[in-house]
Write a structure and sequence with these properties.
Elements lengths: L1 H4 L5 E3 H7 L6 H5 L5 H10 L9 E4 L14 E4 L1 H10 L7 H10 L5 H10 L3 H13 L3 H13 L3 H13 L3 H13 L3 H13 L4 H12 L3 H13 L6 H10 L3 H12 L5 H12 L3 H13 L3 H13 L3 H13 L4 H14 L1 H13 L3 H13 L3 H13 L4 H12 L3 H13 L4 H12 L3 H13 L4 H12 L3 H13 L3 H13 L3 H13 L4 H12 L3 H13 L3 H13 L3 H13 L3 H8 L18
Helix pairs in contact: 2-6, 7-8, 8-9, 9-10, 10-11, 11-12, 11-13, 12-13, 13-14, 14-15, 15-16, 16-17, 17-18, 18-19, 19-20, 19-21, 20-21, 21-22, 22-23, 23-24, 23-25, 24-25, 25-26, 25-27, 26-27, 27-28, 27-29, 28-29, 29-30, 30-31, 31-32, 31-33, 32-33, 33-34, 34-35, 35-36, 36-37
Length: 613
């Protein structure tokens, strides 16, 4: 269970299980084990119960390219036990035999993540050992973690030595990091040599990064030279800055050649950016020529710009053809922008034919816009028909918009009817909007009726809002009734509010019951709020009890608050107890900035401070 909750692989080697088990047993239990204890244990845990279910199941292993084949049998934990482990053992750190067995018997490609788990539990010595073994096997993630550990203790030389060793062993990521460090330290020749060496191995990232760094530092010639080398080595991303640099230098033909080279590999970014540059300079014909090349490479954004430029030039037929071409390819932005352009420049009469054709083609946004236009023209029946058609296609925005317009016209009956249609289609926001409007008008009866309709459709937020307003006008009985109704539907905000109300009226047991219900729903704010109220009243013991409940339910902030309170009170023994609990739960990174100095070398698996290593 510990292996799975610390994100180890599904299939665990038998050797690992055998040797990891030792420290889970007391001395007496371990001493009384039979010689064949492992055989018996595996037989018992592998025996099916309740049909075909077993606690452990021996499995066959498929090894992906680059993976490591276990040397012996492997086993998989039952799913229900894995879930139980997450729930019941989340605050426990595995014992020393677990870490040692993982180090000895798990394949190196599993150790980087386990090293992270050790760091999260402040088991720094084990993190270092696991990362080191993984890094030696070529894991660049583990290497990066080791480098960060060296730098955290101020040993930059050690970090660089580690990168140097990895680079010499062929690690491209370590080499790239080293390139950046050398360039920053002024070792320009060494940085350039190493970047080229990495590129020769097929990884041009360091070369591109170095080129960008040089160009940004004002060393344009060197930057362009290195970027060209990256492009020559097959890095398509290097073509974009090269194209821009050539264009800035007036070498348009070369810039376009580079952009077309990128487009040949389906990256039309450079072509479109050059097209937009030409357009901004007033060279529409050149802009369109480049955009057509991008469109020929299946860039629908290029089709959109071409459509807009053709429309601006008065070629409406070609503009529509291009917009429909983009729509046929699954991108309706060209049509939407073309219709907007026509509406703004020539009015709705010009845009409407295309809008209707696009609506008939199933573009829901066009249905919504036509509904709004019909409403504004006074054709309410047509507006509602189009809005319902859009809702049937999964978009209720048109109905919601019509509700807002009917509200502004104070046509409450029509607004309610449309809001109910929206709710039936899954959108209760219009009903909630109507509730707010009726509250403002102090029409409490209508507000409650609408809030009940929203609640029946699955949204109790309107009941909560109405309860708050009733409380503000001192209708405490009505507020209590509505808030209770929302809380009974597990509305978290209503439960939290009701919990505070009960605390303020002295009904503490009910306040805690409600807060615990919120916690069961995955939110510990109720417990923490009550804790703050108790602390404000000077009841520190009760406050900490509630904070501990919140921490037990998984609240990091509650656990940190307990630690802070104990430390502020000078109770360092108590503070350390909860710091260990945080570390054991995998939360060491949250306490390390403030309290990491207490255990400068980390902790052992049993929780004792680690000696310098």
């Amino acid at each position: 269970m510990d292996a799975r909750r610390l994100s180890l692989v599904l299939q665990l080697p038998q050797d690992f299980l055998e040797h990891a088990a030792a420290d889970y047993l007391t001395d007496d239990e371990y001493g009384n084990l039979a010689d064949d204890w492992l055989v018996q244990a595996l037989k018992e845990t592998s025996s099916p119960v309740h049909g075909n279910l077993a606690l452990l199941r021996r499995t066959r292993t498929r090894v992906s390219s680059g993976g490591t084949m276990p040397s012996g049998p492997v086993y998989r934990l039952a799913d229900f036990l894995e879930q139980l482990g997450y729930r019941e053992r989340q605050s426990l750190c595995p014992p020393d035999s677990f870490w040692q067995s993982a180090f000895d018997f798990l394949p190196p490609d599993d150790l980087a993540d386990l090293g992270d788990a050790a760091e999260h539990r402040f088991r720094l010595r084990w993190a270092w050992l696991l990362w080191s073994k993984a890094a030696e096997a070529g894991d660049s993630t583990a290497l990066a973690s080791l480098v960060s550990m060296y730098e955290a203790i101020g040993d930059r030389e050690g970090a660089e030595d580690l990168l140097q060793q990895a680079a010499e062993a062929g690690d491209s990521q370590a080499s790239a990091d080293l390139v950046g460090r050398w360039e920053d330290a002024g070792k320009h020749d060494e940085a350039e040599r190493l970047a080229r060496h990495i590129a020769e191995r097929g990884d041009t990232r360091a070369l591109v990064d170095l080129a960008s760094k040089r160009a940004n530092a004002g060393k344009q010639e060197s930057g362009q030279h290195l970027m060209q080398q990256a492009a020559d080595a097959g890095d398509i991303a290097a073509l974009l800055p090269l194209a821009f640099w050539r264009d800035d230098a007036g070498e348009r033909e070369e810039a376009e050649r580079l952009a077309r080279q990128a487009a040949d590999t389906d990256d039309t970014t450079a072509l479109m950016l050059l097209a937009q540059r030409r357009e901004a300079a007033g060279e529409r014909e050149e802009a369109e020529r480049l955009a057509r090349q991008a469109a020929d490479a299946d860039d629908t954004t290029a089709l959109m710009w071409l459509a807009l430029w053709r429309e601006e030039a008065g070629d409406s037929a070609e503009a529509e053809r291009l917009a429909w071409q983009a729509a046929d390819a699954g991108d309706t932005h060209a049509l939407a922008n073309l219709m907007l352009r026509r509406e703004l420049s020539e009015g709705r009469q010009s845009a409407e034919p295309l809008m209707r054709r696009s609506a008939e083609a199933g573009i829901v946004a066009s249905l919504m816009m036509l509904a709004v236009w019909a409403e504004e023209a006074g054709d309410r029946g047509e507006a509602e028909r189009l809005a319902r058609q859009a809702a049937d296609a999964g978009n209720t925005k048109a109905l919601a918009t019509l509700v807002e317009r009917r509200i502004r016209a104070e046509d409450w009956e029509s607004a309610e009817r449309l809001a109910q249609q929206a709710a039936d289609a899954g959108n209760t926001t219009p009903l909630a909007t109507l509730v707010e409007q009726r509250i403002r008008a102090e029409d409490w009866e209508s507000a409650e009726r609408l809030a009940q309709q929203a609640a029946d459709a699955g949204n109790t937020d309107a009941l909560y809002s109405l309860a708050v307003k009733r409380a503000q006008v001192e209708d405490h009985e009505g507020a209590e009734r509505l808030m209770r109704q929302a809380a009974d539907s597990d509305n978290v905000v209503a439960l939290l509010t009701l919990s505070q109300w009960r605390e303020e009226t002295g009904d503490r047991s009910e306040a805690e019951r409600l807060a615990r219900r919120v916690s069961e729903l995955g939110n510990t704010n109720g417990l923490q709020t009550l804790a703050a109220m108790r602390a404000q009243a000077g009841e520190l013991g009760s406050a900490e009890r509630l904070l501990q409940e919140a921490a037990d339910a998984g609240s990091i902030s509650a656990l940190l608050e307990i630690i802070k309170r104990r430390a502020q009170a000078g109770d360092w023994k108590g503070a350390e107890h909860f710091m260990r609990r945080a570390a054991d739960s995998g939360l060491a990174l949250f306490i390390q900035p403030s309290y990491g100095h207490i255990w400068p070398h980390g902790l052992e698996p049993d929780g004792t401070p680690t000696e310098q290593w």
